[in-house]
């Protein structure tokens, strides 16, 4: 008899746990929370060609982000779309990578050579910023367990696919306005730093 009550108790506990998990998942995926703020793209974007044709119909497609730099090597195309200083003393660099190699790409060569970075798997952990005027190299930030504060390409990038990436670095001095971004065997890309929010 105790066995039956224990089984019912476990089933009820499992149902409550699953329901709570689903509620938290749905709540975490909803909205952005910053609907009251005007977006940066709206305030500085140029009118798109779509808005000028076909009787002024508005397009539902999101506006393309501006590209600060684009480099290509080995069938990969790396675009840098943002390089913003944050108030916490770091720089967040964001962009996209497009796989044109003809086979799935996992980013293993972008994780860097340091033994601590091996556990990051295919990631952009080996990226760096170089301040040519200050003659300093800034590596991707890491947590206390050696995990990078950057994108991990879990599952890889399929042929022809494009995926977003980000990486966080210590901020160069305030008077440094541009740096060279480099990762793996990609050529360096000079990018302008902007002030974050």
List descriptors.
alpha+beta; 5-stranded mixed β-sheet; 197 residues; 19% helix
What is the element layout, followed by pairings?
Layout: H1 2-29, H2 40-44, H3 49-52, E1 69-73, E2 76-86, E3 90-99, E4 128-131, E5 136-139, E6 162-170, E7 178-182, E8 189-192, E9 194-195
Parallel strand pairs: 2-9
Antiparallel strand pairs: 1-2, 2-3, 3-6, 4-5, 4-7, 7-8
Describe this structure in words.
The chain has helices at 2-29, 40-44, 49-52, and strands at residues 69-73, 76-86, 90-99, 128-131, 136-139, 162-170, 178-182, 189-192, 194-195. It has three helices and nine strands; from the N terminus they run αααβββββββββ. It is α+β, with helices and mostly antiparallel strands and 197 residues long. The strands form two sheets. Strands 1, 2, 3, 6 and 9 form a five-stranded mixed β-sheet that branches. Helix content is 19%, strand content 27%. The protein starts with a helix and ends with a strand.
Largest sheet: 5 strands, mixed
SS field, number of helical segments: 3
Give me the Rg, rounded. Answer: 22 Å
State the low-pLDDT regions, or none. Answer: 32-59
Q: How does the overall form come out from the CA principal axes? A: globular
Order of helices and strands: HHHEEEEEEEEE
> Helicity range of the residues?
10-25%
Average pLDDT, all residues: 76
Q: Helix/strand/pairing class, anyone? A: alpha+beta
Q: Report the portion of residues in β strands.
A: 25-35%
Q: How many strand units? A: 9
* Euclidean distance between termini CA atoms: 62 Å
């Amino acid at each position: 008899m105790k066995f039956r009550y224990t089984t019912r108790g476990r089933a009820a506990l499992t149902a409550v746990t699953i329901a709570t998990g689903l509620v938290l998942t749905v709540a975490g995926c909803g909205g952005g929370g910053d609907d009251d703020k005007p977006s940066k793209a709206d305030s500085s974007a140029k009118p798109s060609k779509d808005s000028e044709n076909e009787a002024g119909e508005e397009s539902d497609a999101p506006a393309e982000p501006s590209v600060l730099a684009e480099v290509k090597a080995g069938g990969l195309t790396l675009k840098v779309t943002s390089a913003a200083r944050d108030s916490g003393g770091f720089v967040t660099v964001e962009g996209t990578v497009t796989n044109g190699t003809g086979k799935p790409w996992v980013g293993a060569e972008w994780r860097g050579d340091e033994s601590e970075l091996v556990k990051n798997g295919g990631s952009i952990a080996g990226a760096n910023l170089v301040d040519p005027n200050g003659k300093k190299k800034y590596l991707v930030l890491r947590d206390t367990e050696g995990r990078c504060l950057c994108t991990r390409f879990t599952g890889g990038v399929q042929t022809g696919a494009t995926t977003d990436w980000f990486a966080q670095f210590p901020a160069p001095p305030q008077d440094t306005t541009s740096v060279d971004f480099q990762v793996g065997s990609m050529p360096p890309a000079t990018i302008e730093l902007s002030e974050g929010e």
